[in-house]
Amino acid sequence: MILTVTLNTALDLTYRVPALVPHASHRVAQVIERPGGKGLNVARVLAALGHETVATGFAGGATGETVRELLATTTAGGPHPVRDALVPISGATRRTVAVVDTESGDTTQLNEPGPAITPAEWAAFTARFTELLDGARAVALCGSLPPGIHVGAYAELVRRARAAGVPVLLDTSGEPLRRGIAARPDIVKPNLEELAQLTGSREPYRATRDARRRGAHAVVTSLGPEGLLAATPEGLWHASPPAPVRGNPTGAGDSAVAALLAGLTEDTDWPTRLTHAVALSAATVLSPVAGEFDAPAYASLLPRVTVHEPASAA
Amino acid sequence: MILTVTLNTALDLTYRVPALVPHASHRVAQVIERPGGKGLNVARVLAALGHETVATGFAGGATGETVRELLATTTAGGPHPVRDALVPISGATRRTVAVVDTESGDTTQLNEPGPAITPAEWAAFTARFTELLDGARAVALCGSLPPGIHVGAYAELVRRARAAGVPVLLDTSGEPLRRGIAARPDIVKPNLEELAQLTGSREPYRATRDARRRGAHAVVTSLGPEGLLAATPEGLWHASPPAPVRGNPTGAGDSAVAALLAGLTEDTDWPTRLTHAVALSAATVLSPVAGEFDAPAYASLLPRVTVHEPASAA
Known about the structure:
2 copies of one chain form a homodimer.
Chain A: E1 2-6, E2 10-17, E3 25-27, E4 30-36, H1 38-48, E5 53-59, H2 61-74, E6 83-88, E7 94-101, E8 107-111, H3 119-133, E9 138-142, H4 153-163, E10 168-171, H5 174-182, E11 187-188, H6 192-199, H7 204-213, E12 218-222, E13 228-232, E14 235-240, H8 252-266, H9 270-286, H10 295-301, E15 306-308
Parallel strand pairs in A: 1-5, 1-9, 2-7, 5-6, 9-10, 10-11, 11-12
Antiparallel strand pairs in A: 2-4, 7-8, 12-13, 13-14, 14-15
Helix pairs in contact in A: 1-8, 4-5, 6-7, 8-9, 9-10
């Protein structure tokens, strides 16, 4: 199975309104509830692709109960629903609210702070994580850290995964990324903003290679609509969709992570992994529902993704 | 005991952000959760004033569970916590989100639609309501109707209360108010906007007396910072605070309803009822927490409220 970790899970609410006007009152026309937090999104995409997937992290309170119910129901259709291995906490799982203007398609985001995690809860989590590594073919560590968890938490989890011989992908930002990358994860997947924070450079090639020198075996940088740039032990590649796609980019990065994890477990070569990651990402942007992918679009995009070794690799 | 009805209960969330910017991402600095819907606010204020209070209406889903827990915990301090007589439903109680800009104090409101009520759930409610009327000294019918409930619902409940000999106050708007007022409630409490919708007039005296001719025994119109205007069988009065108060007006109308209900059960004269309603309303605006009142301010405002019979009463 593939294991995903979401320390700061969320109940994601999407509100559709004609247009958000500050200091006015709005009747919300439509409410969509989804299990949220990057690792849960990755797990749902993996389940939709037919992989056996286990999701761990934290969940608590009424919002946490709702997240668990939604995780079960939204993955019930596939051959392997996501197995829920979330660790209960005394605090309540946070909500995020995305207010979508139906007139313009623009989104306003409101993110609640996460619940504080106690030392006993962190200890219970690390014990569960270590158990779950036995049987995992790959693990993804995704998203921000909730309050109460030490900033070196991802570095600690990367070391535990490596000690267990399980390939590990890290998708986070800021100081948790800086510390985590030094613990030598197999893959990190920053976007350009996260990479600039880490390396001080906004030049994609330079920054991606700089990040790799900090410890990651491979760095896969998201270039948004222009695809993915990967610095790996086998070389440097740029994978691009046949044309930029228009739609809702929410969850596109999580779909790329899901494809890279699947590639790790199948031991495919890098160009193949990147092709799947770019096609799945673009198919996610094209889906009308944020964080889900358009399966026919995924199939039709796969043969049209281009992968090349850029000249600046020299 | 005093009975309050909230057909469209809510989980009220208050998010504090420095300033809401459309199409940007915001970290919410503080989240406050409260049981919401006008009738629950009225019940909490009555409980804080020491009255035995029963709250009915509908609650369902994880949000409904949270509303019930919050109702129990937020009224646990007084001599009589609000007794929860909410009727369970299969749908989920709606959320409302108030985004408060801490820089300006302005609020942006997002209100989810309520859950659809089935005919069986409405039948269960009316049976519970009729049981509860036996023992009630007054009843308040508050707020909007959720989907699935017929627009004459409040008229039906007013008739049931009158048949049971229980004084009834109606606080709603639009067509439910128009139908409800024709069933002859003891008091209706519109604001100027609701009154203009009902009567077509924005002139407070004319509109208040017009509303009374439509069937209510008394009409108490909220004039916002300028107090209350009441057309009653005993005469016309205007009650005003000593000076306009600055603060958060959320819940000020619900506090006025609580004071008017308490006056109904104590059979005080109209000037006394209006004095309490204006002082309690102003003390609610002055409270730092939306929907709660500042008890020392209430005590100090009471002797300073003025009530006069306006010249235009002639």
